[in-house]
Design goal:
It contains 10 helices and 7 strands. The chain is α/β, with parallel strands linked by helices. The strands form 2 sheets. The chain has a 5-stranded parallel sheet with strand order 1-2-3-4-5. Helix 5 (about 140-145) links the parallel strand 4 (about 130-135) and strand 5 (about 150-155). The protein is globular and about 50 Å long.
Length: about 240
């Protein structure tokens, strides 16, 4: 088993309704102790994890945090305050903001009128790198994010479809990645393991001609956004 000394860093997944996200959520966190109630108390779980990692690792060890600014019971303003606190405390190296669509407007009417990305690009970063994820599928998409103030971009589906995507963009900025759904055979050719392919197949319109046992929950995007849980879709 590898030790922490074998790694250069770690990213904490505090987005998409997972455990850290559930603690941050004003909707799902119903605790009445020091880890629930106010935004400051809901952040405590994440901040203590960051502190624990930093205390046990060298200053050179990279620590990143991924957060969702909305949905899953998250509030854009609270997430912005959390991001600035993480930066100000000087214990992380980068923030990964998952927007689902980097060019969208906020869902919450009180934050509309500005792009969702803009609520974070004007943070006082103090050397902390800021990245965004969400439907970045082309060289142009990535370039626009950098022009809008991102330090880096996080690419999901297009990079799953092409294991060498950065090399493809470097040699041909006009390269158009393959669109899903894709066959399991093609995904294997890009280095995906069978467990990951099986997981992708639970999402709608991701993998074609792939049998998923009926007892495996199918992923429902709208239900996920609403409740933070994947659910079984009705089968014919």
């Amino acid at each position: 088993m590898q030790s922490a000394l074998d790694f250069d860093g770690v990213e904490l997944h505090g987005a998409h309704g997972y455990l850290i996200s559930a603690f941050l959520s004003g909707l799902y966190n119903r605790r009445e102790d020091e880890y629930g109630g106010t935004p400051a108390k809901r952040r405590r779980f994440l901040l203590e994890i960051v502190d624990g990692i930093r205390d046990r690792c060298s200053k050179e060890f990279q620590i990143g945090v991924r957060v969702s600014p909305e949905r899953f019971g998250q509030d854009v303003g609270e997430t912005r305050e959390l991001a600035q606190q993480l930066i100000d405390e000087g214990k992380i190296d980068y923030l990964d903001i998952s927007l689902w669509d980097v060019f969208k407007s906020p869902v919450d009417p009180k934050y509309q009128g500005h792009s969702l990305m803009s609520y974070f690009t004007d943070l006082d970063r103090n050397g902390v790198r800021l990245g965004f994820a969400g439907k970045i599928i082309s060289h142009d998409d990535a370039t626009r994010c950098l022009e809008y103030g991102a330090d880096f971009v996080v690419i999901g589906r297009a990079a799953i479809a092409h294991h060498d995507l950065p090399r493809q963009f470097r040699s041909n900025p006009g390269f158009i990645p393959r669109k899903f759904p894709l066959t399991a055979e093609y995904l294997r050719s890009q280095g995906l393991g069978e467990s990951f392919i099986a997981y992708l197949a639970t999402w709608p319109d991701m993998v074609v001609n792939y049998f998923v046992p009926p007892e495996i929950p199918r992923f429902d995007v709208e239900e996920f956004f609403t409740t933070g849980r994947s659910v079984k879709l009705a089968t014919g």
